Amino acid sequence: MSEQGIFDFENEDDGQAGLLTDLLNRAERVLVKKLSNNDRDWARFANKHQAGVYIPAEQREGGFFPPLETKARKDANAAPIREAWFDTYWPQASGDERSKHTRIVHYTSKGPETHMTRLPKECFGYLSPASFLVMGRYRQGEDTAYECLTIDSASDDAELLLAQLDITPDFLIGEFEPAEIRAREQDRVLDFVEELIAAWHAGTIVDFARARAAMPKTEELAGLARGRYLELHGLERLDPFVIKRPGDALREISRIIEWDMFREFQRRERAVDLVRIVMGDKPRDMTVAEVIRRLVSELPQVDALMLSASQQRKSRAGYSYEHHIEAMLAGGGIPFEKQVVIEAKKRPDFILPSLRFIRSGDAAAASGLILSAKTTLRERWKQVEREKGEHRLYLTTVDENIAGNAIEDMASLGVHLVIPESLMDARETEYSGHKNVLTFEQFCSGVIRPAMNQWA
MF terms per GO, please (predicted)? Predict the structure, then answer.
């Protein structure tokens, strides 16, 4: 495995993936920050006092930035101002804005508060909530160069960033050494590669693929992830009335535990498929020239393999989240029906407690509801609105990047959002303050539990 190849992104021509690939391959150290609302708002609104990105003291003094020096001030008794100036390059910006003389400044009178300013506004003003700033530091002759990108959280590029640097959903800020990540990735696959080579030489690669590199079905993998979560937390079942923060539990299972499992299975599956495409299933002596010819001649299949891997990640995530919601409803003894056709082209994920109940015509029927599950929303929330009809509609998601105006649009259509508890008041999201947003715990205790008396 080449050191550069580990950061070769799929669909590099799509969005900023090519820029991100290049930065990760050249940088000695990389700093990534999930941007708070204040980190973006200065570029969107004229009345914001924060002009730039907040930098915590640990990163300020951690060696990534140039050392701060005390600024000379006319008033010798004034609280010191510590600052450093350095050049940054922003390839996403236009014209002269690409090259900035950036400042990191610490006003000691304000405690540890430090900001990085003199940034191109156009790179921050359009970003979705919980987007990312990526800064790469590398040597350029005798100088230190800083290259910077902003990655929109609603883009495919964000998924690639998270995957390449093993960033978990609860991540806020951190530094990475790409060379170390490359080495760790190589160590991770080394034993499997040796097994794969041995299987190919033995002519048993087909059996090896079935036994050691087959991706579990979506429902099976979801079950494995839930089992791991229950084991880690000493629980017998996913009961939302017992688990203190059930929405965070769903997020941990789907976005951390299952994601790690999925990546390991996919890594193995893709490696075996690639060997079979290039080398075939039957062992034989092949020269380097023959391997290269096969690799070039089979490029269409290799491209299709890489594309299918990307599509596999996206298509499985939504179905998997439905499985976790189903398990949590069952774990709490909550009655429901899944994927029931209400009418033509209307098949909501869950009806609580049943289609028959909400159509009964009884006064209690109004306590029934429709629950839709979407791992990520983007514009897909509009698809569930037509499922609503005259019934209450709740849409549960673990997505961080929903903008406030979209939340208000949902409210105007009578759509309630159900989110993990940690996202409600996070500085990186825009969920707080909207009446149609509630946590999963609030949904279970304040909506479902009172209604269950009428569902019995």
Answer: DNA binding; type II site-specific deoxyribonuclease activity
Q: pLDDT for 120-157, tens place per residue?
A: 999 999 999 999 999 999 988 788 999 999 999 988 88
Encoded tokens for 403: 């903008």
Contact between residue 42 and residue 50 where contact means Cβ atoms under 8 Å apart: yes
As a whole number of angstroms, the distance between CA 325 and CA 419 comes to: 12
Indicate if the pLDDT at residue 1 is higher than 50: no
Instruction: Indicate the CATH number of 5-176 among 2.40.330.30, 3.40.50.720, 3.40.50.10310, 3.60.110.10.
Output: 2.40.330.30
| Residue with the larger pLDDT of the pair 16 and 20 | 20
Sheet of 369-373, strands arranged across: 337-338, 350-352, 369-373, 392-396, 415-419, 437-439
Q: Which CATH fold topology does 337-455 show?
A: Restriction Endonuclease (3.40.91)
Residue 269: count other Cβ atoms within 10 Å of its Cβ.
Answer: 18
The ranges assigned to domains in the chain are 5-176, 182-331, 337-455
